[in-house]
Amino acid sequence: MEFGSIIKTAEETKVSIALAFPDVYEVGMSYLGFKILYHILNAQPGVAAERTYAPWVDMEAKMRENSLPLTSLETMKALNKFDFVGFTLQYELSYSNILNMLDLGGITMLATERTEDDPLVIAGGPCVFNPEPLADFIDFFIVGEGEEVMVEVMDLYKKWKNEGKPGGRKEFLERVVQIPGIYVPSFYKVDYLEKETQGIPAGCVKSVTTVNSLAPTAVQKRIINDLNTIDYPTKPIVPYGEIVHDRIMLEIFRGCSRGCRFCHAGMVYRPVRERKPEVLKKLARQLVDNTGYNEMSLVSLSTADYSCLEPLIHDLINEFKEEKVSVSLPSLRIDSFSVGLAKEVQAVRKSGLTFAPEAGSQHMRDVINKGVTKEDLMNAVGAAFENGWSQVKLYFMLGLPGETDEDILAIAELAKAVQGKYKEVTGKGGAKVTVSVASFVPKPYTPFQWVGQNRLEEINRKQMLLKDALKIKNITYQYHDSITSVIEGVFARGDRRLGKALYLAWQRGAKFDGWSEHFSYDRWVQAISDAGLDKDFYATRERAEAEVFPWEHIQPGVSRQFLWNEYEKSKTGTLTDDCRHGDCTGCGVCPALDAKIIDWKSSVL
Amino acid sequence: MKLRMQITKEAGIRFVSHLEYTRTIERAIRRAKLPVAYSEGFNPHIKFSLASALGVGITSQAEFVEIELAKEIDITVAVEKLTEALPMGIHIKAADVVGSKTPKLMAIASGADYYVRIPCFGDCLEQLQRFNSAESVLFQKPIPKGRGKTKEIQVKDFIKKVEYDYSNKELELRFACKITTTGSMKATELLKILRDQFSVPLILEQADIQRTDLYAVNDKGRKKMLIGN
After folding, report:
1. Which residues 4-23 of B are in CB contact (within 8 Å) with A?
2. What are the structural domains of chain A?
3. Mean of the per-residue pLDDT values for chain B?
4. The DUF2344 domain covers which part of the protein (chain B) (predicted)?
5. Of A469, A553, B51, B207, which sees the most CB atoms within 10 A?
């Protein structure tokens, strides 16, 4: 077992939970959320939290051939022997793996058919803000940050178990639903419009009502008000093999209030809450001592926005210089300040720098509220080139609302301008520019939740348009499979009727859909249609303002009115400021959650 | 000054690759906070090396690591610290300190002993004798990254004979394998030769292979331990 893993004996274990990541070990072990929960849960007396991952297809074949169940790593216990199996919902295309893992773990697939012998199957993570496509398979969801609520759930289970599990699963669900942040899908009934009503088509949600009086009408997300008060994993597991993010992850803050209108994380993780620099330095020291890693990444949704970043980086670099521990930043803001920081942290290695203008034209960037100009980008890459970089990667999205062909061609223009800047700064050509383009998928709880996603043919056409425009020396064009975005789009804004499609697709072999070699578009389209559903209804349909969405009884705190206003503003390209430094934008999160922004610079001054 | 240690690679981590095993040791050294020497350059790394790479799936009682130190340390303290920092599956069996100028372990390791337990369904004694008495056994050894290309090697240059013990459909083998500057042989290759060229009915996938020793060989052809002399 890896260094730092925790194995509890059967005698020590009153309640057991398998933290299940629906992808391979190397991906799952890189996920900070489970590092945190593993630590917090195992610190509880009587609680044993173990890990399990999706076996790769060759391993799965061997397991099935030899009738071996999927087990945890720690005690090699089959998943169906746990009290809880907890999945994280990181991306929609991992849902088929959840079903496959339940099957491999010997757990009854449908929540309604589970018996007292089955574990309670629970789930949380970013996609929990529309958990409806998984409603058939999950006993209850944990909405929001898990540090406190997971412990409350474990305590409740211990108590119920000590009492002799009165009332069985149903009673446990009735008890657990009374904990804030818990969503029990079977306690809710969804009605759909039978015919078009006030411009809203038949098949849309008419209402979501509770069928158990103990269930709240809406489940509010849980957050940790002050990150400085909670435990952070300072002894994470150090794997033998190389994982995707093979370094120390120091989480410096949560939330982001820049307000990019496409960004799901920016809306659902509000408000911004920073850790104190002193706390971070202490954590960093313990992490270096306990792991032996020689690299530390300062993680958050937008690391360059940490209010005390410069002094923090200085202090960390000085502290760990002798031990040859480097500090890295996962993302850069588009300004020269960020380039200066990048120069400092990777003092020597001149690998490429990555920026995310997200859109090519100023109009499009204003539509998405990116708040970045061409001049900002030119200053940033200019600074990078002056400091010796010659490779730049630029991230964009295709298929944004209201996008024209001109907007797309502007991406190529921007890439050329970056090359031009290199010539201007260095007097020679040859800057390598990589243009990486993703297809935009509208997500719930963003201002674009009303938007129709581009059709597959349209995305393909736009990709080719850009490809032709980017046939330029030293510019590399990378783009994602458009077909995966279609299915991602269906499930992102889907309802619980999609459970059937998911089940059919899994039965027909869907797994590892996030891996293009395993993704079959035809299989998904067929499964959706065999479930009596229409993919375009979910993905490409523009919604009316008053439409009731399938996810609105799960609440991240941002108000519907704020999101709609933002959508309206996007149509005219009107910007909204970051509330962190400017005025309150009225998103509603702070009053809804009784929380406040924690920004150390402002609070010190 | 260099710290040399004999360490294990036990059954629980037998499928960890050589690169992963090396990285695991490096992290343990860092956790133990030994006063190690770093390489120069932009990407400084700890100056340490292993004597010989072990194939995936093989356990070992005799892996050797040497770590270059920046200053002197008490060997007992170092072993204590490292023991605490090592993950499951790696133990320190012996430790020693040598001067910086001592030749690298990699350069002096010239032989390895193996112990194999493997299911064997049928007669094998006569075939094994035939292997032992053969003057020449040739093998087409795949060239690393050679895209299926092979080169012919003389097995007897590396493995002279095997000791064996057969009972209850299980064959136990013990043999010494020479390591030269231009290469060596894998234990799995010998098993393949025994099966394919000498018709020993082995189930290769179920072989349990252990490296029991790794050593230098002196001018007289005698075994010489890598540390502690």
Report:
1. 12-13, 16-17, 20-21, 23
2. 15-220 (3.40.50.280)
3. 93
4. 2-181
5. B51
